[in-house]
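Dear colleague,

Thank you for sharing your sequence with our group. We've completed the structure prediction you requested, and as agreed, I am returning the results in plain text so they can be pasted directly into your records. Please verify that the sequence below matches your submission; if there's any discrepancy, let me know and we will rerun it promptly.
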Amino acid sequence: MTDASTPAGHATLRPVVLRVAGLNIAYFSIEIAVALAIGSLALIADSLDFLEDAALNLLIFAGIGWSLRNRARLGMALAGILLLPALATAYAAWEKVSDMAPPAPLPLTLAGLGALGVNLVCAMMLARHREGGGSLTRAAYLSARNDAFANLAIIGAGLVTALTLSPWPDLVVAAGIAVLNADSAVDILKAARAEWRAAHPVA
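Please find the predicted structure tokens below.
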């Protein structure tokens, strides 16, 4: 495994996070279009994840090679960024209450499958760097990994919606995505605080 904290690790990590950011931006544009067309709260939440992941990886690109102290600061900021899709999903859920029509199940399922493919590719690209880069690369890896789990849930929601024509599978998965984001934010914050303590040893 390449150590992302070394200059050689920086050289290999930089193009990886740029490619991951590009993939996330590209699929965000696809998924948000489908989400708005079929009225899927789960897809809205997931598309916001793709946009957040793109921003996260671009910030990591900017922070590669920084000191341990500055990486810790950026890691804390990234933990906050991970909470933004959860807050946006909560607002969308509030708006959804006035219209409980179920989303079209086939586009929901197909969009989930596409998202799963993109996130699995991103997670594999980042996996070899997740330990050596501290809270920054761990943030990117955890986000891609958790999004893959969320995509499996979206696919399941699409199948259940096709059978029941109920809006609840979509709403439940959207809530689950918000919880995953919050859990990742806590994990990244812990890693960033550990880096901060390492940069400020007690005399």
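Summary note from our side: The CA atoms of residues 119 and 144 lie 5 Å apart.

Kind regards,
the structure core
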